[in-house]
Amino acid sequence: MAKIKVLVVDDSALVRQVLVNGLNKEKDIEVVGSASDPYVARDMIMSKNPDVMTLDVEMPRMDGIEFLRKLIPQHPMPVVMVSSLTDRGTQATLDALDAGAVDFVAKPTTNVGSSLNQVIGELGRKIRANRFAKVRVGKRKSETRIKTAPLTVLKGSTDKVIALGASTGGTEALREVLLSFPPNSPGIVIVQHMPPKFTEMYAKRLNKECPFEVREAKHGDRVIPGRCLIAPGGFQMRVARSGGQYKVEVKGSDKVSSHCPSVDVLFTSVAEQVGSNAVGAILTGMGADGAIGLKKMRDAGAHTFGQDEATCVIYGMPKVALEKGGVETQLSLEMIGPAIIQKIGTNTVGRASKGVLGNQAKV
């Protein structure tokens, strides 16, 4: 099998050396070039035709985000960001994901040379997973916000809970789904695979755009209409019933299904505590996290959706969930949000609906 051709772009000679040496030790990866800035990288892309590019944000002559915005429309290719875990680095990484990057790894801020060797394995896995990732072009346009559903659709739905899970490509996928929800949407709980700090920044960014409150979850937060809670990086999040209320438990740092937070953990709790009053959806991402939990939700009477292959950046998590029987209905990304709201409003458990689901086959 042909090796995956990788181009490394970083203004630090030390970082380039560590990444090149580390990645070349991977049996299925070949670094075909390294560049110190986007202008050199552009020429190497044309001459070397890499399968995947790793990219830093802060570089001379042109930063990585501007480079992505120029590159992706003309030459769509999977780009994995290698970014620092600082406030500035985190914000820049989210901007890069908006601009078309498919994934990222966190660059250590101290002892860079030795610490980078520890992330080579993670970088290698993400390069492999994203080799054939679909790159979405021209995604972020705030002036063309998705129209929200009518408020009357959700009359009497305050006992409902919407549970969403995503990984690679999920930051933009979740944004699109959330922007299709009305201000009085039922309580929303989300797991997006991200490390600490990133989830807080991501929640703050969504809070500025969505017509309801979005925030990183804290232990004991209530799940109520008009509020979206995102599981914090490094902690597991569960939904628990407390009398007539739903709350979240944010505790535990052990990995489940190889992740913390884990979609399986969240979905399983929703199945046990919310049952048929829940609606769940699993979006783009590599691996299998969420498949078991979504099946439990469906078995408990919840409506469940999976993102289709054509609109996924990585058709991994939704594919496994479909194969395991957890997906009731598979839809394109732009249809998932309206379909969730329709199910919430009609409350027709176990029956096909008209409207956005009219031409979709149930699984």
Separation of the first and last Cα atoms = 35 Å
- Note the quaternary state here: single chain
User: What is the N-to-C order of secondary-structure elements (H for helix, E for strand)?
Assistant: EHEHEHEHEHEHEHEEEEHEHEHEH
Q: Can you identify the CATH superfamily of the largest domain?
A: Methylesterase CheB, C-terminal domain
Radius of gyration over all CA atoms, rounded: 20 Å
CATH level 3 topology of the largest domain = Rossmann fold
Number of strands: 14
Largest sheet: 7 strands, parallel
Helix content estimate: 25-40%
Into how many domains do the coordinates divide? 2
Major beta sheet, strand line-up: 8-9-7-6-12-13-14
**Count of separate DSSP helical elements:** 11
- Average pLDDT rating: 88
Indicate the CATH class of the largest domain: Alpha Beta
- Indicate the CATH architecture of the largest domain: 3-Layer(aba) Sandwich
Shape: elongated
Structural class: alpha/beta
The low-pLDDT segments are 139-157, 347-359
Tell me the β content: 15-25%
